[in-house]
Design a protein that fits this description.
Blueprint (H helix, E strand, L loop, with lengths): L1 H23 L43 E4 L53 E6 L5 E5 L11 H11 L6 E3 L2 H4 L16 E3 H10 L3 H12 L2 H14 L22 H12 L2 H7 L3 E4 L9 E4 L16 E9 L3 E10 L2 E10 L4 H15 E5 L7 E10 L7 E7 L5 E7 L2 E8 L13 H44 L1
Parallel strand pairs: 1-7
Antiparallel strand pairs: 2-3, 2-10, 4-5, 6-7, 8-9, 9-10, 11-12, 12-15, 13-14, 14-15
Helix pairs in contact: 1-10, 2-5, 2-7, 4-5, 5-6
């Protein structure tokens, strides 16, 4: 009998240990670091095709089968063809004032409390923004109307891309040939020469070919005048408020103006198009022999930020356009992506050799001093959005939000940093909500911990209850066995 009692005691001991094992794996309260995952962007790169061709600048001869290199001059002549009527159909917009000549040096964003101080630049105007949140990171004379030079061609390409196919055949007429004049950049095309729309877009972007810009305008719009109207309509659609286009080339016209802010919106829309991003990030492109020419044309971009052979090369640049006239000075509009943060930069009224370096300076300022935070990842009241852009050294008391009730009962949440908009989100209403509290990663981490804790405790209670029932069952079985002996 004692022998069976000893075995029973051992059996109960083993059973008790086994039932308690689940409790040994209950984790202590965790203090995981909050992971702010930025919004993902897809960067489209040009194929690694190598384009061969002569580097000479000789004039193109349609009877010669040799290759010719066409690149946009770094110093476009201030030329306007009076023989062609570039005037837009509507006279209302032509009454806009010409671009002013005197600009101040005030960097508006440097006045924001707690904002990282932006670098001083010599260019007259500049604007830098983060794309997903549209947060303005840097602003200097950003809403002053200025001459855009060939940066106009960004809009020319955008309107063409939205209203044609890359396989379309564009035939040169007298309209396009009006742009083949002394002082204007061209690829020396001929009347009746045929190009695909894709070849035209490369010629416009890389070689800044004015005659191709005019011909594409006529092909897409029916007339250059109507195409210019389409450009202005697109500008308004994008939110531009101080932009007037009078031609698709960027050749000087006192009434053709834009601002660094507006040009950033146009550049953002253009780079959002995969084809334009690919074209504008291409260093060289070859147009093969056409129905008229016997040789191929090798086009070269003057955008140094995409050229590894230049000191201004910027590995994060995803494309853009650079232009120059005596009246406009140097203008450079581009985009860059680093650490999943996509930034648009525009520099205007700069020196011929200054805008490249100053663009790099402003892009580095953006990436070094700001970061994207996804507050909605651990703030379970945020239904959508909640991605904000803040200075990396932002303090908790500097980030706040305000809510506006929508018709469906959700809240339109507007985030601010020192009163400056930094992002939006759609949130679910709470029973008692204090909109004055700061929305920081630390606060949402605490919510995430509480949520995680509440969902982890319940299973262990169930396991404990099941273990107790198992022990009771084993004990009853043991007693029954002992009594039977």
């Amino acid at each position: 009998m004692k022998k069976f009692q000893k075995k029973g005691i051992r059996f109960l001991t083993v059973a008790a240990v086994l039932c308690c094992l689940p409790f040994s794996n209950i984790p202590a309260e965790e203090t995981e670091e909050y992971n702010y995952e930025e919004e993902e962007y897809v960067s489209y790169e040009t194929d690694d095709t190598e384009y061969s061709g002569s580097d000479s600048d000789t004039e193109y001869d349609t009877t010669d089968s040799s290759e010719t290199d066409y690149s946009e001059s770094d110093y476009e002549e201030s030329y306007y063809d009076d023989s062609y009527d570039y005037e837009e159909e509507s006279t209302e917009e032509s009454e806009e004032p010409a671009a002013p000549m005197d600009l101040g040096d005030t960097i508006t964003t440097n006045a924001i409390e707690g904002w990282p101080q932006g670098p001083a630049i010599t260019s007259g105007a500049a604007f830098v923004m983060e794309e997903s949140s549209h947060v303005v990171l840097y602003s200097k004379n950003a809403d002053v109307p200025l001459y855009p030079s060939s940066a106009v061609k960004i809009m020319t390409c955008l309107v063409a891309l939205e209203n044609s196919s890359l396989e379309d055949i564009v035939t040169m007429t007298s309209t396009g040939m009006a742009g083949v004049v002394d002082g204007a950049t061209t690829i020396s095309s001929q009347v009746d020469e045929e190009f695909t729309m894709e070849q035209c877009l490369y010629a416009i972007t890389l070689a800044s070919a004015n005659e191709i810009s005019l011909q594409v305008a006529e092909y897409v719009g029916g007339s250059v005048e109507h195409f210019v109207k389409m450009m202005n309509d697109k500008a308004k659609e994008l939110g531009c408020t101080n932009t007037v286009f009078t031609n698709p080339t960027g050749l000087p016209d006192p009434q053709q103006v834009t601002t660094a802010h507006d040009l950033a919106l146009i550049t953002e829309a253009a780079l959002a198009d995969r084809t334009f991003q690919t074209i504008s990030s291409t260093k060289t492109y070859t147009i093969p022999p056409t129905n008229v020419s016997g040789g191929q044309r090798v086009l070269s971009s003057n955008l140094t930020l995409i050229d590894p052979a230049t000191p201004e090369f910027y590995e994060f640049c995803i494309g853009g356009k650079e232009g120059y006239t005596e009246d406009s000075g140097s203008v450079l509009a581009c985009g860059a992506v680093k650490d999943d943060m996509r930034v648009i930069s525009v520099v205007m009224r700069g020196g011929a050799e200054e805008t490249d370096n100053e663009s790099v300076t402003l892009l580095n300022y953006a990436f070094d001093n700001f970061e994207l935070l996804d507050l909605g990842r651990n703030d379970f009241s945020v239904k959508s959005g909640g991605v904000i852009l803040v200075p990396k050294e932002a303090g908790q008391d500097q980030i706040t939000w305000t809510d506006t009730m929508l018709e469906d009962g959700t809240l339109d949440r507007q985030y601010q940093f020192s009163g400056i908009p930094i992002g939006t989100g759609i949130a679910l209403p709470k029973t008692e909500q204090d909109n004055s509290i700061a929305v920081t990663g630390a606060a949402h981490l605490e919510e995430a911990k509480e949520y995680s804790s509440a969902n982890k405790v319940l299973p262990y209670y169930l396991i404990a209850g099941a273990g107790a029932l198992l022990m009771l069952f084993l004990a009853m079985r043991l007693v029954k066995i002992l009594k039977s002996k």
